[in-house]
Amino acid sequence: MPAVDLKKRYAEDGYVIIPGLIEGEYRSNLESACERVIAKTRNGSWLHRRTVGKQFPPYGQDNPDSWGIQHLMHPDLKEPIFVQWYTSPKLLGVATELLGCSEEDLQMELLNLLINPESHDFALRWHRDDIREDATAEEELKALNIWHYGVPRTEAQRKLSSGQIPENPLDMPGAIQITLQPGETVFYNSNILHCATYKSDTRRATLHGCMGDAKGGASRARNILQHGLRWMKGEDFFQTLPNSNANRMLEKLISLSDSSEQRGAVEYSLQN
Ligand SMILES: O=C(O)CCC(=O)C(=O)O
Predict the structure, then answer these.
(1) How far is the CA of 180 from the centre of ligand 1 (A)?
(2) Separation of 128 CA from ligand 1 center, angstroms?
(3) Atom of ligand 1 at shortest distance to CA of 198?
(4) What is the pTM (predicted TM-score) of this model?
């Protein structure tokens, strides 16, 4: 899709699907790495995970089953392909196009893997990543303006997104269901109202990450830092970075984290 259409679709719909972004050997290497980290999570040797029963951070360890794997770029996982992909020219090219910023402005943030739990079905309720469900229409509009996208919920939408797990997500007025084919990538504004399901009998492995325009300053801090990113400040992680883009992106994250630490404790965006 030409860049101008890409941007228009993203601006109008809040998301855009791009086929073929991960191709060939890259894709098979990522798939093998995903298999290894899924195995480590399921056998209990990787504890940074999204735990069944918890919707948002802190995820805790209350249930042995998982619906996601956190911190894929963590050096202890020893899977450098993830940071290589996250900072690859192809991915950064689309990100800069959609965010309307240059590579110099990009900030390193999160990369995780969303998987099917082994023995429990799980669903994420309707939510916006950094706007609470109980925000008033006025608060919602104010927050959406910071994120440059979206309109407050209608009364009917509000009723179906006030913290409950949806029986049928498509009951939500205006809802659409997106099905991605293997190898397709969806870019979405994480403050559109969205939800998801994780069926134990259906294999799922979705690389799921975000990056930001550092010019957004502290507005991204809570949403990102609530996941616990101290490890990204360590020398071991720095040593895994594959290129100068990655170094620069990490510097942006560290400065966000440092200035946020000076302001006080990190809060959570949403309640479990
Ligand atoms: O499962 C998905 O694709 C969406 C995940 C999600 O909504 C989230 O992590 O906030």
Answers:
(1) 13
(2) 10
(3) 1
(4) 0.95
User: What's the CA gap between 190 and 109, in Å, rounded?
Assistant: 13
Q: What is the pLDDT of residues 152-169, one digit of tens each?
A: 999 999 999 999 999 999
| Tokens 């020893």, located at residue | 78
Segment 232-254 shows an average pLDDT of: 97
pLDDT digits (tens, 9 = 90+) for 177-202: 998 988 899 999 999 999 999 999 99
Of 65, 68, 52, 63, residue with least CA distance to 165? 52
Tokens 């990190």: give the residue.
Answer: 266
The rounded percent of the chain whose pLDDT value lies above 70 is: 100
Q: Which long-range contacts (CB under 8 A, 24 or more apart) does 86-92 make?
A: 86/111, 86/209, 86/211, 86/246, 87/241, 87/242, 87/243, 87/245, 87/246, 87/249, 88/26, 89/245, 90/21, 91/21, 92/245
